[in-house]
Amino acid sequence: MTRIMHYINQFFGGIGGEDKAEYPLTVTAGTVGPGRLLAGKLGDAGTIVATIVCGDNTAQYSPDHIKQEIAALLEQYEADILVAGPAFGSGRYGLACAEAAEAAQMYGIQSVVGMHPENPGIDLCPADVIIVKAGESVVDMAASMEHLCRVLVHLTAGRPVDTEELTYCIKRDIRCNTTSRKNGAVRAVDMLLAKIGGKKFESEQLPPHFPRITPAPPIDVPLSKIALLSTGGLVPKGNPDRLEASSATKWVSYSIAGRASLTPEDFECIHGGIDVTHINAYPNRLIPLDICSEFRAKGLIGALDDEYYVTVGNLTPVARCEQFAVEMTARLKEKKVSGVILTSS
Amino acid sequence: MNLSTAPRVRPNLAHRLELFNYTVRDVRLGEETNWAEGVLTVNAEALKKHLIAEAGVRRMGIAVARPGESVRIVNILDAIEPRVKPDNGQIFPGFLGAMDGTVGRGVTHALKGCAVLVCGSVPGEVASQVVSEAIVDMSGPGARYSPFSTTRNLILWCDFYDDQDPVKRVSVARHAGLMAARWLAEATLDHVPDDIRVYGVPEKTSSKKNGPHVVYICPGMLLSDLHQTFLSGSALTSTPSVVHPTQLMDGILVSGNYDIGATRNPTYLYQRSPIVEVLFSYQEKGLLSFTGVIVTKCLIEGFSGKQRSAYLAAQTAKLLDADGVVISIEECGHAYADLMLTCQACEEMGVKSVLIMAESAGATGAKPGPIAFAEAADAVISAGNMDEVVSLPAVDAIYGGPWSCGRWMIDNMALEAMKTPLANIFAATSQVGAGRLKGETR
User: For A61-89, what is the HEC assignment?
Assistant: First the structure.
């Protein structure tokens, strides 16, 4: 019988909520929490040999380490398939499921994860992961599990997922490499001759779709608290939090309380995709604290937040940036910030 | 010289070049340097002596790598096909000789199937001074990606004088590579070639009876001293230049770009440009007339500069009577803005265009496409996703000098199995059409 490993977070593992998000990775033989429902539906089609429970923060803090641990457990339990989630609409749980799927890819087995179509974890899943649509929250557990089970039954029987089951899955819309019979030059000239001759041809690349952002309603700046944000990688000299020069895994914030300007003695730019000379000579060129302090003194800005918020945009996946934005916004709202100046590199 | 083997020459070709191909099926190190029956034997000591004396190299390692061997070549700066011109003709003008009327005309000898891979460790200190990693695996799954896993390679690993800054180091390595290429090809001077190919653009004619007129727009780059392309020895400007396709074969374009390994265009792929090759072969079949190459620059600063170059290039294509253009590109990022503007300008002037571009879709293939995409760009060839991560097995031997990689971090030692994005594999997602890799949506 097909051996299934199930990955869930601390909440579904019955450990606790947000306060237990640091819960370490643990493994239990057999089913835990939602795994029982899945096992009931699966019947003889497969058996859940073990369940991994891991806190969502733990999964984020040391992703490489966690992936290695999961891969080792897959080997130990001789798993054939990894099932992760359903994570529903929970962003951090979704990212953790994507991480578990990556571990399965490392170990060389198929993984199936459950996520809501808007979960940012989708974009971090390796290309060959099957993502089954789940509802937005746990109230959709029964239906989500039913769909997950139908896909699993196909896989455990060694059949490819068919069209009906595919309707339960999220179309990845991702780019995969393939090998063509002809090289790029031949394909280009053939396509050109077809185009000149008015014949049919098919472009190999189409314009990208970027999501449209609806702007927030206007604010009255002299009455508002403003914060400074940047994706340009300005950090205190020495980069105390080791913010990455590219493919950032975190955002950080630094105090500017009592400062009217950012000095080259105290700050430096660690962005890896630009010439940082001009920023290092005068860091306010990246994060305009000098002019904002001046405006605040003149009453043109109501108040300035006492820290600035920063990450590095260079090669950082969009999904991770979206997650940073959600976390930063929560913090800004807590601090009653109503407007931000966001600078890029 | 026995020319009786030469095929009949089309009378209507202008700027005609006869390419004498001396096929190389094996490269060996030996006592004397010569070419005989498909075997190139190289006296490594003599070559070393020559390059140390003439190119300013401090020390040099020389090795041979053949397809199928368990070999990994690292720190690659450029690839060059060995070529020489008899009778005082100029090869690699601006570097090894002057630009004159022989460039792209007359006879050129080529060691076909052989490449000189120039390697050297060039650590950089700031972002604009970075030399990125470029590797070639001669066997295993990695071999599928680089065109240089199928050539018989002579690897020159340069060691530099300690006080040489990165710019001086790459310039020394560049000279050494070009000199070695000419020196090796000199071994063919008294020999009869395996094959003679005749190339040239048609004599001026407005007739379209030989198919539509096609122009190749070939952007090189100039971003910094370590990221540039040379046109007869000089840095490119953002004003387009027209060259004969046969001049590419004589090394009028030389790579001085050491950025991302997968998307940089090495000298070899100008000399044996896949696009030029297809256009000439289709011309021979009567499918089209190849009327010229326009060399432009990408990664131009500022929008107005990009626009100026794009419209100048399109207008030049129109003057060359082009019905259509193939536009390649070098590197990525805002180079795609140059590419798209050139496409748009061509289409506005009624010149049909096809573009070749690599993709940077992220390791999972989910990242949105390029930063710029013109509405007019309805015919785009994909050279594959350079962010795809591939696993390379352990190898028996490694050539190319001390393992130091630039911007793309590889944690493992080079000899061991490693995971790397395709970006680190030399010419893996070639935007001059050398590879068969392509991206598709799933």
Answer: HCHHHHHHHHHHHHHHCCCCEEEECCCCC
B212–A318 CB contact, under 8 Å: no
B50: pLDDT strictly greater than 90: yes
The first and second tokens of residue A210, run together, are 């970027």
Q: Which pLDDT score is estimated for B394?
A: 87
- Whether A73 and A155 share a structural domain: yes
Bridge partners, residue B196, by sequence: B20
Q: Do A178 and B437 touch (CB under 8 A)?
A: yes
The mean predicted confidence, pLDDT, of chain A is 91
Quick one: residue B179, left, alpha or beta (phi over 0 = left, psi -120 to 50 = alpha)?
alpha
Which of B364, B409, B419 is the best residue to mutate to test the A interface, defined by the most A CB atoms within 10 Å of its own CB?
Answer: B364
Contact B368 A173 (CB under 8 A): no
Asked if residue A172 belongs to a domain, the reply is no
Sequence spans of domains, chain B = 13-424
Q: Is B232 exposed, middle or buried (0-12, 13-18, 19+ CB in 10 A)?
A: buried
Which range is most confident: A54-63, B88-97, B155-164? B88-97
Q: At A190, phi and psi to the nearest 5? A: -60, -45
Residue A50 domain flag: yes
Q: pLDDT tier at B280 (50, 70, 90 boundaries)?
A: very high
Q: Average of pLDDT values for A318-325?
A: 83
B357 to A125: CB separation less than 8 angstroms, yes or no: no
> What's the total number of domains in chain A?
2
Does A18 map to a domain? yes
> Tell me, what DSSP letter sits at residue B55?
H
Once rounded to an integer, what is the mean pLDDT over residues A183-199?
A: 98
The pLDDT value given to residue B71: 94
Distance between CA A230 and CA A287 in Å, rounded? 7
Which residues, in sequence order, are CB contacts of A44 under 8 Å at separation 6+? A1
Please tell me which of the candidates B127, B380, B433 has its beta carbon nearest to residue A275.
B127
A4 φ, ψ (degrees, to nearest 5): -110, 135
For residue B411 the two structure tokens come to: 């944690």
Tell me which chain B residues have a C-beta less than 8 angstroms from the C-beta of A204.
380-382, 438-440
Structure letter (DSSP) for residue A273: S
Query: Of the candidates B287, B373, B383, which has its C-beta nearest A207's C-beta?
Result: B373
**A158 and A275 housed in the same domain:** no
Q: Check which CATH number belongs to the domain holding A148 and give it.
A: 3.40.50.2300
Query: Inter-chain contact A178–B438, Cβ cutoff 8 Å?
Result: yes
**β-sheet bridge partners, residue A181:** none
pLDDT, mean over chain B: 90
Residue type, B55: A
- What is the domain extent for residue A252? 221-343
Residue B359 and residue A175: Cβ atoms within 8 Å?
A: yes
Band of the pLDDT at B8, cuts 50, 70, 90?
very low
Please give the Cα distance from B198 to B216 (Å, whole number). 19
Mean pLDDT of B165-171: 89
User: Which of A64, A169, A173, A205 should one mutate to test binding to chain B, selecting the residue with the greatest count of B CBs within 10 A?
Assistant: A205
In the predicted structure, residue B293 carries a pLDDT above the cut 90:
yes
